[in-house]
Design a protein that fits this description.
- The protein starts with 9 loop residues before the first helix and ends with a helix.
- Helices cover 71% and strands 0% of the residues.
- The protein has four helices and no strands.
- It has helices at 10-13, 29-49, 52-64, 67-99.
- With 100 residues, it is mainly α.
- It has one domain (27-99).
């Protein structure tokens, strides 16, 4: 006579967890903010160059700027870049603290 064989399937005794183990990807807010800034810049540029009247009006406005107002406009644009960069630095620091 033969001995009875163990017919228990190892796969049937393995516990399967039904809890979700999906790791959420971190949102890179710096990329999101810079993407929004670039989309806004592209939209303004496209609206200016899409019409000859708007392009001519923009050229006339730029040509009419005095040196002081041109410098002030440049300083305002530089300030905008600095503010956005500072905002992104704060967001990045808070994201790093949250991960730890």
């Amino acid at each position: 006579m033969t001995e009875p064989q163990n017919t228990t399937d190892p796969a049937s005794t393995t516990r399967i967890s039904t809890a979700p183990s999906v790791a959420h990807a971190a949102i890179r807010w710096g990329g999101v903010v810079w993407g929004v800034v670039l989309i806004a810049f592209a939209a303004v540029t496209l609206s200016i160059v899409s019409s000859p009247e708007r392009a001519a009006g923009t050229r006339a406005w730029i040509a009419s700027l005095e040196p002081g107002s041109a410098w002030a406009l440049g300083a305002a644009l530089l300030g905008l870049i600095i503010v956005v960069s500072a905002l992104l630095g704060g967001i990045r620091a808070s994201q790093r603290r949250r991960v730890r």
